[in-house]
Amino acid sequence: MLFRSGLPFERWVKGLADLAEREREPGRFLALALEDLCALPWVSGVLWQVHGTSGEIGRRSRFEAEYSFQDLTLKFHTNWSLSPALLLHLKLLTQMIGHFYHAKQREEAQRRNAYTQAIHETGARLTHDVKNLLQSLHSLCSAVESSGAGEADALQALVRRQLPQITQRLSTTLEKLRA
Protein backbone atom coordinates (compact mmCIF):
# COMPACT_ATOMS: atom_id res chain seq x y z
CA MET A 1 0.00 0.00 0.00
CA LEU A 2 1.14 3.49 -0.81
CA PHE A 3 -0.60 5.36 2.01
CA ARG A 4 -0.89 4.03 5.53
CA SER A 5 -2.45 5.45 8.63
CA GLY A 6 0.01 7.50 10.60
CA LEU A 7 2.56 7.98 7.81
CA PRO A 8 3.73 11.53 7.29
CA PHE A 9 2.56 13.36 4.18
CA GLU A 10 6.10 13.28 2.73
CA ARG A 11 6.04 9.47 2.69
CA TRP A 12 2.70 9.50 0.87
CA VAL A 13 4.25 11.75 -1.75
CA LYS A 14 7.29 9.47 -2.07
CA GLY A 15 5.02 6.46 -2.51
CA LEU A 16 3.14 8.27 -5.25
CA ALA A 17 6.41 9.22 -6.98
CA ASP A 18 7.62 5.61 -6.74
CA LEU A 19 4.37 4.43 -8.33
CA ALA A 20 4.83 7.00 -11.11
CA GLU A 21 8.31 5.62 -11.82
CA ARG A 22 7.10 2.01 -11.96
CA GLU A 23 3.88 2.37 -13.95
CA ARG A 24 4.08 3.50 -17.59
CA GLU A 25 0.40 3.39 -18.60
CA PRO A 26 -1.56 6.52 -17.54
CA GLY A 27 -4.90 4.81 -16.85
CA ARG A 28 -3.32 2.10 -14.76
CA PHE A 29 -1.25 4.66 -12.84
CA LEU A 30 -4.40 6.61 -12.03
CA ALA A 31 -6.30 3.51 -10.90
CA LEU A 32 -3.45 2.34 -8.65
CA ALA A 33 -2.88 5.80 -7.18
CA LEU A 34 -6.56 6.20 -6.35
CA GLU A 35 -6.73 2.69 -4.94
CA ASP A 36 -3.86 3.53 -2.60
CA LEU A 37 -5.49 6.85 -1.79
CA CYS A 38 -8.54 4.95 -0.53
CA ALA A 39 -6.26 3.27 2.01
CA LEU A 40 -6.10 6.53 3.95
CA PRO A 41 -8.12 6.02 7.14
CA TRP A 42 -10.36 9.02 6.48
CA VAL A 43 -11.09 8.25 2.79
CA SER A 44 -13.92 5.79 2.11
CA GLY A 45 -14.05 6.19 -1.68
CA VAL A 46 -13.07 8.24 -4.71
CA LEU A 47 -15.02 9.02 -7.87
CA TRP A 48 -12.90 10.19 -10.77
CA GLN A 49 -13.50 11.66 -14.19
CA VAL A 50 -11.01 12.43 -16.94
CA HIS A 51 -11.33 12.74 -20.74
CA GLY A 52 -14.97 11.68 -20.70
CA THR A 53 -14.26 8.48 -18.78
CA SER A 54 -15.06 7.94 -15.15
CA GLY A 55 -14.77 5.41 -12.41
CA GLU A 56 -15.31 4.76 -8.75
CA ILE A 57 -13.15 3.15 -6.11
CA GLY A 58 -14.31 2.36 -2.59
CA ARG A 59 -17.69 3.39 -1.25
CA ARG A 60 -19.66 6.61 -1.11
CA SER A 61 -20.42 8.45 2.11
CA ARG A 62 -22.32 11.56 3.16
CA PHE A 63 -19.10 13.57 3.52
CA GLU A 64 -17.45 14.58 0.27
CA ALA A 65 -14.96 17.01 -1.21
CA GLU A 66 -14.35 17.58 -4.90
CA TYR A 67 -11.15 18.87 -6.51
CA SER A 68 -10.05 19.28 -10.10
CA PHE A 69 -6.69 19.55 -11.77
CA GLN A 70 -6.82 20.41 -15.47
CA ASP A 71 -9.20 17.79 -16.88
CA LEU A 72 -8.97 15.39 -13.91
CA THR A 73 -11.76 15.65 -11.35
CA LEU A 74 -11.69 13.69 -8.09
CA LYS A 75 -14.60 13.51 -5.66
CA PHE A 76 -13.50 12.17 -2.29
CA HIS A 77 -15.93 10.47 0.06
CA THR A 78 -14.75 10.51 3.65
CA ASN A 79 -15.72 8.74 6.83
CA TRP A 80 -16.19 12.03 8.69
CA SER A 81 -16.20 15.76 8.11
CA LEU A 82 -12.65 16.82 7.32
CA SER A 83 -10.64 19.60 8.88
CA PRO A 84 -9.25 22.38 6.68
CA ALA A 85 -5.80 20.77 6.94
CA LEU A 86 -7.05 17.43 5.58
CA LEU A 87 -8.98 19.23 2.84
CA LEU A 88 -5.74 20.95 1.84
CA HIS A 89 -4.01 17.55 1.80
CA LEU A 90 -6.67 16.24 -0.57
CA LYS A 91 -6.26 19.27 -2.82
CA LEU A 92 -2.48 18.78 -2.91
CA LEU A 93 -2.86 15.04 -3.54
CA THR A 94 -5.24 15.79 -6.41
CA GLN A 95 -2.69 18.16 -7.93
CA MET A 96 0.16 15.66 -7.54
CA ILE A 97 -1.85 12.79 -9.00
CA GLY A 98 -2.90 15.11 -11.84
CA HIS A 99 0.70 16.17 -12.56
CA PHE A 100 1.92 12.57 -12.66
CA TYR A 101 -1.09 11.41 -14.70
CA HIS A 102 -0.57 14.11 -17.33
CA ALA A 103 3.17 13.38 -17.44
CA LYS A 104 2.29 9.73 -18.12
CA GLN A 105 -0.01 10.83 -20.94
CA ARG A 106 2.76 12.96 -22.48
CA GLU A 107 5.23 10.07 -22.23
CA GLU A 108 2.75 7.73 -23.92
CA ALA A 109 2.16 10.27 -26.72
CA GLN A 110 5.93 10.62 -27.19
CA ARG A 111 6.30 6.83 -27.42
CA ARG A 112 3.53 6.66 -30.03
CA ASN A 113 5.08 9.54 -31.99
CA ALA A 114 8.54 7.93 -31.90
CA TYR A 115 7.06 4.66 -33.16
CA THR A 116 5.18 6.42 -35.96
CA GLN A 117 8.32 8.39 -36.86
CA ALA A 118 10.36 5.18 -37.03
CA ILE A 119 7.78 3.58 -39.32
CA HIS A 120 7.76 6.66 -41.53
CA GLU A 121 11.55 6.81 -41.76
CA THR A 122 11.79 3.08 -42.50
CA GLY A 123 9.16 3.43 -45.22
CA ALA A 124 11.00 6.40 -46.73
CA ARG A 125 14.29 4.47 -46.81
CA LEU A 126 12.65 1.43 -48.38
CA THR A 127 10.91 3.61 -50.96
CA HIS A 128 14.26 5.19 -51.81
CA ASP A 129 15.86 1.74 -52.17
CA VAL A 130 13.06 0.54 -54.48
CA LYS A 131 13.35 3.70 -56.61
CA ASN A 132 17.10 3.11 -56.97
CA LEU A 133 16.49 -0.50 -57.99
CA LEU A 134 13.92 0.57 -60.58
CA GLN A 135 16.32 3.16 -61.92
CA SER A 136 19.03 0.49 -62.26
CA LEU A 137 16.62 -1.84 -64.08
CA HIS A 138 15.46 1.01 -66.31
CA SER A 139 19.09 1.84 -67.22
CA LEU A 140 19.76 -1.82 -68.00
CA CYS A 141 16.63 -2.03 -70.19
CA SER A 142 17.65 1.17 -72.01
CA ALA A 143 21.09 -0.31 -72.69
CA VAL A 144 19.47 -3.44 -74.13
CA GLU A 145 17.06 -1.42 -76.32
CA SER A 146 19.73 0.90 -77.70
CA SER A 147 22.38 -1.73 -78.39
CA GLY A 148 23.13 -3.05 -81.81
CA ALA A 149 24.04 -6.54 -82.99
CA GLY A 150 27.76 -5.80 -82.78
CA GLU A 151 27.51 -4.95 -79.07
CA ALA A 152 26.00 -8.26 -77.98
CA ASP A 153 29.11 -9.45 -76.12
CA ALA A 154 29.51 -6.17 -74.22
CA LEU A 155 25.78 -6.13 -73.44
CA GLN A 156 25.86 -9.70 -72.19
CA ALA A 157 28.82 -8.87 -69.90
CA LEU A 158 26.95 -5.82 -68.55
CA VAL A 159 23.82 -7.88 -67.80
CA ARG A 160 25.92 -10.60 -66.11
CA ARG A 161 27.50 -7.98 -63.82
CA GLN A 162 24.38 -5.96 -63.05
CA LEU A 163 21.64 -8.58 -62.53
CA PRO A 164 23.30 -10.34 -59.55
CA GLN A 165 23.91 -6.95 -57.90
CA ILE A 166 20.32 -5.88 -58.48
CA THR A 167 19.09 -9.23 -57.15
CA GLN A 168 21.24 -8.81 -54.02
CA ARG A 169 20.00 -5.23 -53.44
CA LEU A 170 16.40 -6.36 -53.91
CA SER A 171 16.89 -9.20 -51.41
CA THR A 172 18.39 -6.77 -48.89
CA THR A 173 15.45 -4.38 -49.35
CA LEU A 174 13.01 -7.25 -48.88
CA GLU A 175 14.78 -8.26 -45.63
CA LYS A 176 14.48 -4.67 -44.38
CA LEU A 177 10.79 -4.70 -45.24
CA ARG A 178 10.24 -7.94 -43.32
CA ALA A 179 12.07 -6.57 -40.30
List the helices and strands and how they pair.
Elements: H1 9-22, H2 26-37, E1 43-50, E2 53-58, E3 63-69, E4 72-78, H3 84-146, H4 152-178
Antiparallel strand pairs: 1-2, 1-4, 3-4
Helix pairs in contact: 1-3, 2-3, 3-4
Describe the overall structure.
Helix 3 (84-146) runs antiparallel to helix 4 (152-178). The protein is 65% helix and 16% strand. It is built from four helices and four strands, in the order ααββββαα. The longest helix has 63 residues, at 84-146. The two termini are 43 Å apart. By secondary structure, it is of the alpha+beta class. Mean pLDDT is 87; it is low at 1-6. Strands 2-1-4-3 form a four-stranded antiparallel β-sheet, covered by helices on one side.
Primary descriptors:
single chain, 179 residues, alpha+beta, 4-stranded antiparallel beta sheet
Strand order of the largest sheet: 2-1-4-3
Task: State the end-to-end CA separation.
Answer: 43 Å
* Number of separate strands: 4
How is the main sheet built?
4 strands, antiparallel
Number of helical segments?
Answer: 4
Low-pLDDT windows of residues: 1-6
Beta-strand percentage range: 15-25%
Mean pLDDT: 87
Order of helices and strands: HHEEEEHH
Helix content: 55-70%
Shape: rod-shaped
Radius of gyration based on Cα positions = 32 Å
Report the structural category: alpha+beta
